[in-house]
Amino acid sequence: MPETFAMDRVDRISDILYGVASGEGLIEYTPLGRRVGVRPDHLGRFLDQASIRAADRTEPLWSALVVSKATGRPSSGFYLLARRLRAEYRDLDAESIWEQERQRCYAAARPA
């Protein structure tokens, strides 16, 4: 029987965000949602899972690269989760958290 490869949405989101990081870019919720078949207002759960999985692997929180079209920034949920997952972020302002985590993403995706 042929082997089939199944990829869950969290893996797919992580792969897409790695690609976004390799170009040192950002992606909005709506285009990301379209690419993985999830309404933008339901992406939060999947982005949280991707961030938790990444933190467990000592990777950057890839969800730092997903932004609102209206604000150009991540949703408030990103900052709450980042503070929960990274002790060094607990007392930082949102702008500093976002900058540090974006730079972690970009550095991790640069060729060695």
Q: Key terms for this structure?
A:
112 residues, mainly alpha, 5 helices, 2 strands
Concise account of the structure shown:
This protein has 112 residues and is mostly helical.
What can you tell me about this protein's structure?
This protein has 112 residues and is mostly helical. It has one domain (9-109). The chain is built from five helices and two strands, in the order H-E-H-H-E-H-H. It has helices at 9-22, 29-36, 43-56, 76-85, 94-109; strands at residues 27-28, 66-67. Strands 1-2 form a two-stranded parallel sheet. Helix 1 crosses helix 3 and helix 3 packs parallel to helix 4 (76-85). The longest helix has 16 residues, at 94-109. The radius of gyration is 14 Å and the shape is globular. The protein starts with 8 loop residues before the first helix and ends with a helix. The model has no long low-confidence stretch (mean pLDDT 93).
Layout of helices and strands:
Layout: H1 9-22, E1 27-28, H2 29-36, H3 43-56, E2 66-67, H4 76-85, H5 94-109
Helix pairs in contact: 1-3, 1-5, 3-4
Reading the helices and strands in chain order gives HEHHEHH
Structural class: mainly alpha
What percent strand?
Answer: under 5%
In the residues, how many domains can be counted? 1
For the biggest sheet, the summary is: 2 strands, parallel
The strands making up the biggest β-sheet line up spatially as: 1-2
Helix amount:
55-70%
Rg value: 14 Å
Distance between the termini: 39 Å
Question: How many helical stretches?
Answer: 5
